[in-house]
Specification:
about 190 residues, mainly alpha, about 70% helix
Length: about 190
């Protein structure tokens, strides 16, 4: 979003522009640091030409591309509807306690899930995590909440249990362990 001067001079960036730019810069910095750390375990893997760093580096590049694309999209949207953006930014200034609590919860909830997932198992905790994040992002429609959670969970099961055979945590607590193993068994039926 840019402000226009009365004499028609070139627009100057506003705080929304700098916030978006700072967000992109932080993501690019994180991606750069993670990418540089992949050199610590760069080893050849038989029958896989990209080596041990192939997937981590690909994810870093994809995340960096996503950060730049998000910044560009935010700039395009801000240019197309500047008056709309001004109205929205005034409505949610970020200073009220509910907005701050929501932002804190969006940050803390994944950390809590990362703490609990190895204990109760990924396959049980993943749908609760997705649904919880959707609720924190103010998705209130039960149909959308269920549909998105089910679609993401189905894709996770498809990719990690049927295509890649990745061992995700199945839980350390016996009852959760048994349920997680049963979910994996159901996901692999027909293989």
């Amino acid at each position: 979003m840019t402000e226009r001067t009365l004499d028609g001079e070139s627009p100057r960036p506003t705080s929304e522009f700098w916030r978006s730019f700072a967000e992109m810069a932080v993501w690019l910095l994180i991606c750069g640091i993670v990418y540089s750390q992949t050199g610590l375990f760069d080893r050849e893997i038989p029958d896989y030409e990209f080596g041990a760093t192939g997937w981590p580096r690909a994810l870093c590049i994809a995340a960096a591309f996503g950060a730049v694309a998000q910044f560009c999209l935010q700039r395009i949207v801000a240019r197309r509807a500047p008056e709309n953006a001004n109205a929205k930014s005034g409505a949610k200034s970020g200073g009220d306690w509910r907005t701050l609590a929501q932002r804190a919860a969006v940050f803390v909830f994944p950390l809590l899930w990362l703490y609990l997932a190895p204990r109760v198992g990924f396959y049980i905790s993943a749908p609760f995590f997705v649904a919880g994040m959707l609720l924190l992002m103010e998705v209130r429609s039960p149909v959308n909440l269920f549909a998105v959670t089910a679609a993401i969970y189905a894709l996770v099961l498809l990719f990690f249990t049927r295509l890649f055979f990745v061992a995700l945590p199945v839980g350390r607590i016996e009852a959760f362990y048994d349920v997680n193993v049963a979910i994996i068994g159901l996901a692999r039926i027909g293989l």
